[in-house]
Amino acid sequence: MSFDTIPHITSKLPDVGTTIFTVMSALANEHDAINLSQGFPNFNIDERLKDLVKKALDDEQVQYAPMPGRLDLREQLAAKMFVQHGVALNPDTEITIAAGATQAIYSAIAAVVKAGDEVIMFDPAYDCYDPSVRLHGGVPVHLNLTFPDYRINWEEVNERITPKTRMIMVNNPHNPAGTVWTIDDIKALEELCIKYPELIVLSDEVYEHIQYEGEHQSVLKSEILRPRSFVTYSFGKTFHVTGWKVGYTVAPSFLTTELRKMHQFNVFCVNNTIQAALAEYLSTGSEWMQVAPFYKEKRDLFLGAMKNSRFKALNCEGTYFSLFDYSAISDEADVDFAKRMTIEYKVASIPVSVFYKDNTDNKVVRFCFAKEDETLTKAIMKLCKI
Ligand SMILES: Cc1ncc(COP(=O)(O)O)c(C=O)c1O
User: Residue 209: how many CB atoms within 10 A of its CB?
Assistant: First the structure.
């Protein structure tokens, strides 16, 4: 018998390669550029949260947490949601702690999407949506947001619903567009769900606390949407701890039951030490509620100074990303422009075409302004010379 061959596998995601986030960060490192590409903050976290992690370690909170998450943390989250949205959630049956929103989204899709089911999503879209659907035999139906205001064309959504449509995935506040929903978006989605009662909603609300004007229009506030929605959140965005990868899913109990069946076999449970620290952090003090004013200052600094550049700012109503139209500077494809800007001008960004299934190139790049003011000021000086 010969052992000189290796098994042959057929990729389940043959079209997926190294993501642009890895490419741009590597390019930024190689050329010593300021990295405004990937969405992570470069400032310190709250000392009190750090101390609570140390305390959780000292208290030996280091063994497996319960499968759905620590009850003390789920209770704190139910209390937070009650204050925020006036909804009474059952922490036992409606909240599940996840290994970041990415795993929360994956498990929600795994729980309900079956072979041949269609899932509507809106481009530009966060990169994990489409592959997570395809891995479960689902068929992603990509609809483009309007340009340049990046809103959902609800009439088009209505036209694209078929008997196979199982789920609609929405994201508010929106990455990369920086747009937020109005009450009219909620109403439009409600109308669709009344017309097509088998629709399940997956609402990605990881930037819920980073909205600059008006109140966050969570689907949880709607009596029509809440009973049919998975809603996903991430502590990474709110507490500047993206590397912890801890988040949670809110869903009615019949959806949570199915979600947890997936969750228990793809992660079982999530970092107990961190959950213990988060539970205590949420129960004592509310510094973290100040995250929107904190980012608003950064947004105003960045967008204000960029008025002196040849870039044209698009909407930035939420998140710590802002989109800029560079068509007055170059007609290069956005990927080429972003790479050249990193190499020649030493500022890395993300070309927005990568968030589209059809690679729509509107000559727009995304900058992340979750950075120290000093970093932003240096980047602005470079960008204003282009
Ligand atoms: C829109 C959106 N959804 C989900 C995630 C994933 O969050 P997490 O890091 O908690 O997995 C991100 C992270 O960038 C995001 O921007």
Answer: 21
List the structure tokens of 315.
Answer: 């909407």
If you take atom 10 of ligand 1, which residue's CA is the nearest one?
100
> 77 in helix, strand or coil?
helix
- Asked if 225 and 167 touch (Cβ cutoff 8 Å), the reply is no
Q: Does any ligand 1 atom lie closer than 6 A to the CB of residue 39?
A: yes
Per-residue pLDDT tens digits for 97-107: 999 999 999 99
Question: Which domains does the chain possess?
Answer: 20-45+289-383 (3.90.1150.10), 47-283 (3.40.640.10)
Ligand 1 binding pocket mutation candidate from 206, 207, 263 (most atoms within 8 A of CB):
206
Tokens describing residue 52? 């609570």
Q: Would the pTM of this model clear 0.70, i.e. be above it? A: yes
* Euclidean distance between CA atoms 119 and 170, whole angstroms: 11
Find out whether 180 and 321 touch, Cβ atoms under 8 Å. no
306-310 average pLDDT score: 97
